[in-house]
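Lab meeting notes turned into a lecture example. A postdoc, R.K., suggested we walk through two folding results consecutively so the class can see how the record format repeats. The first protein's sequence and structure tokens come next.
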Amino acid sequence: MKILFLNGPNLNMLGKREPGIYGTCTLTEIESKVREKAASRNVEIEFLQSNHEGELVSLIQQALGKTDVIVINAAAYTHTSIALRDAISAVEIPTIEIHLSNIHAREEFRHHSTLAAVCHGIIAGFGPESYLLALDAAISVKANLKP
């Protein structure tokens, strides 16, 4: 089983960027925790980050036939990107949307997800643990897919 973790804009700044909201854990540290847990479950992961919407679209498209589940933290693109929504819909790979913060407890413009309707589910508000919860969810989603 292979899970693709896609990370959107500014997530490369974790640990430095607004630690009161996003915490002090870096994306590299989160990746390390996910890799450790994935290895114990015999799951292969790929962990990628881009600040560019088009590159994220391309990565979603390139996952077709190679990835069982996508976990995406699209960051600000969550609220604006029809292109990401369309890419997720087009590849028909089960996708889980995640967020470090609780987007529904933040600014009004963050309350709406453009991606939610084409995702299997959403995990938000658990800090770095959101990624580990998403790993569990992705394994469960794959196990429960009808052949």
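The second example is placed directly after the first for contrast:
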Amino acid sequence: MSAPHLELRGIGHRFGATRVLEGVSLTIARGEFVVLLGPSGCGKSTLLRIVAGLVRAEDGELWLDGARAEELEPVERGVAMVFQSYALYPHLTVRGNLAFPLEMARVPRAEREARVAETARLLRLEALLERKPEALSGGQMQRVALGRALVRRPRLCLFDEPLSNLDAALRTELRAEIARVVRALGTTALYVTHDQAEAMTLATRLVVLAGGRIEQQGPPLAVHARPATRFVASFVGSPPMNLVAAEARGDALVAGALRLARPPGLADGALVVGIRPGEVRAGRGLELPVRRLERLGHETHVELELAGAPFLVSLPGHGPDGAPTALAVELPPDAVHLFDARTGARLTGV
């Protein structure tokens, strides 16, 4: 069996007194597209810079293709990075920007021209090759930045929130381009974002970070369907999962005025009940007061009040007529998630 393309073993790091990474272990196979998803300050960009060699981890080991790599300089690691800023050379044309890393690597001219032509074709830049960055749109500049990274045929391509400076329409277009080109080239990718849509659509494996630790990893749809912790449940999914404080007593789970059937084997005490807004059945069951209603065209968000806290329901289309003051809701048992109130871990075996 071949060695993993990239392996992180117990990576830890701090900035001053602040611990930003704690015991992060991650294995990435060749050709995977792994997305690190998490809120600001969770350590995902620091982890990316450790892989690139821009930051030296205080603890742990970094392996590339079965060999220790902590002592390697960034240029020796065979990795390329795409940042939020385009960082293009303003005095060079698109062709010159694409060719520059190959010139620095002393790639022969014929091969250099062939690689630039292939990369331009893949990224649909052929018509822009003689333009300078000042004559490009933001989306075009980011495609050139992507091409400059991929033209080197790196072992690993690292993306640090590359689409965050673009508007929503361009982000949608560019994430499709990134997925198409990276997979066409068979490049291994490690991509950092806090954007759910990017994470869900790009990743072959999703790694959710919080507080410098990995909360959960797996195929994006599996993570969405079965979050391992309360944090993952709240962070993965848009709109986020409803999380309601509840108590198991008698034959029921009680959350304010809401009563649910108690699963067998569940101990008495406090827990958290979760359900995604789109899985709540509306029109029957317990009536809850309406706090707010937002009609978005394709769907309607109705914010209710349950146990003194907001409880969101997503309905298809225009939702209820008029301005209702209450909405009846029911929680299907197979759509309910249960989490430990103290640790936040998913309750299993119930």
